[in-house]
Amino acid sequence: MTLEGMHFYEVILLILGGLLFISCLIIFILKSVKSTIPYKLISFFIVSIICIGYPSIQKIQFENGKAIIEKKADEIISKPVAEVNSKQKEEFNKEVKEIENSDRTITDPNLINKITEAKLKMGDTVGGKAFIDKAVGQNPDLIKEAGIKTQIDNIRKSKRPVRK
């Protein structure tokens, strides 16, 4: 599990939840060997599970959103322009907007390329340029990776009509 798409507080929650869980487990084992089972520790186990579970659920939801966008982008890219219907365009743009409007960032250069390529294929050069600019603004190192520079050049050279 990578930390892409996770907020700093979620990483801290994950680490502290893991430490709390391990601590509770050690105390539980030591106390139960010496005397009776310490039932007061159960609440701390529950808190540690919540601390670990919340960031994990958020991460899974983010990854699911990325997978949906990637699938829809692949569908648009693989079809000729005439075969891409307006429903597919709307669904794709809706999914991309959800990620753009969230406070999580996509740092996978291949996915950024696919999204930009799909936007360009749909004739949305403004949207493609805005998406690339936002991604590069959040992580300037992306411009060196996986052909993002090529995508930027393609947008600049594009003869397609600009759609707002």
How would the blueprint of this fold be written?
Blueprint: H1 8-34, H2 41-78, H3 86-101, H4 109-121, H5 125-138, H6 148-157
Helix pairs in contact: 1-2, 2-3, 2-4, 4-5, 5-6
Report on this structure:
With 164 residues, the chain is mostly helical. The chain is 72% helix and 0% strand. The protein has helices at 8-34, 41-78, 86-101, 109-121, 125-138, 148-157. The two termini are 37 Å apart. The model has no long low-confidence stretch (mean pLDDT 79).
Produce a short descriptive summary.
It is built from six helices and no strands. With 164 residues, the chain is mainly alpha-helical.
Give the DSSP E fraction (strand runs of 2 or more residues).
under 5%
Q: What's the SSE pattern? A: HHHHHH
Overall geometry? elongated
For the largest beta-sheet, the strand count, sense and barrel status come to: none
Q: How confident overall, as mean pLDDT?
A: 79
How many E-type strands? 0
Classification by helices and strands: mainly alpha
**Uncertain regions spanning at least 5 consecutive residues:** none
CA-CA gap between termini: 37 Å
What is the rounded Rg?
22 Å
Key phrases:
6 helices, elongated, 0% strand, 164 residues, mainly alpha
